[in-house]
Amino acid sequence: MSKVIVNEFLTLDGTAQAPGGPDEDTSAGFQHGGWHTQYGAGGGVAKLIGEAGGFLLGRRTYELFADYWPNARAAREIAEPMNAKPKHVASRTLAGPLEWQNSTLLSGSLPEAVAALKEEAGGDVLVIGSTVLVQSLIQHGLVDEFRLMIDPVLVGGGKRIFPDDGSLRPLRLVDHEVTGTGTIIATYAAA
């Protein structure tokens, strides 16, 4: 059975919005896009992407990635698996077929579609970005592991991945490291 692994860049105050660039996501007036770039991610991101069996993306992240990765000239160790591996897209507004190579829309309800993905052979499914999707996955108990890269910066607001629903969800620390830039890379699984 495959695992669903959520891989996220987070600020110390819990924001996941627009880590990569100033124009990545300015919704709700967010002005701190690109907050992650000065910290790097160590070699772990390329390894995790290379080992993934496929990717699960929300609509906004899919559109951002589909625009960038097919033409990416740098970061070949990330671009090649991003383009070649299956991409499963959760969206209520997109219509298929999707243009980015090996991309398909999930059909049916999110819990049933993701449960079916987990039953398929082919390796773990990696979720990147996709804050709304991640919250839904958490609420339905579909996340097997969180890999969080927590940067030493506060941005005072923005999109978050953890639902504010009052539910208790115990986790256990599986692995951790601290980079030279002060980023904490922590892997958690359900307790």
Strand coverage percent? 15-25%
Enter the CATH topology name.
Dihydrofolate Reductase, subunit A
Question: End-to-end distance, in Å?
Answer: 18 Å
The level 1 CATH classification is Alpha Beta
Instruction: Determine Rg (CA atoms, Å).
Output: 16 Å
What's the main sheet like?
Answer: 8 strands, mixed
Mean pLDDT: 93
Domain count? 1
The helix-strand sequence is EHEHHEEHEHEEE
CATH homologous superfamily identity = Dihydrofolate Reductase, subunit A
Low-confidence stretches: none
What count of helical segments does DSSP give? Answer: 5
Tell me the number of strands.
Answer: 8
Strands in their spatial order, largest beta sheet: 4-3-2-5-1-6-8-7
Structural class: alpha/beta
Q: What is the general shape?
A: globular
Helix content: 10-25%
CATH structural architecture: 3-Layer(aba) Sandwich
Kindly describe this structure.
- The chain has 191 residues and is an alpha/beta fold.
- The protein has a single domain, classed as 3-Layer(aba) Sandwich (Dihydrofolate Reductase, subunit A).
- Helix content is 24%, strand content 24%.
- The chain has 5 helices and 8 strands.
- An 8-stranded mixed β-sheet has the order 4-3-2-5-1-6-8-7.
- Helix 1 runs parallel beside helix 3.
- The longest helix is centred in the first third of the chain and has 10 residues.
- It is globular and about 40 Å long.
- The mean pLDDT is 93.
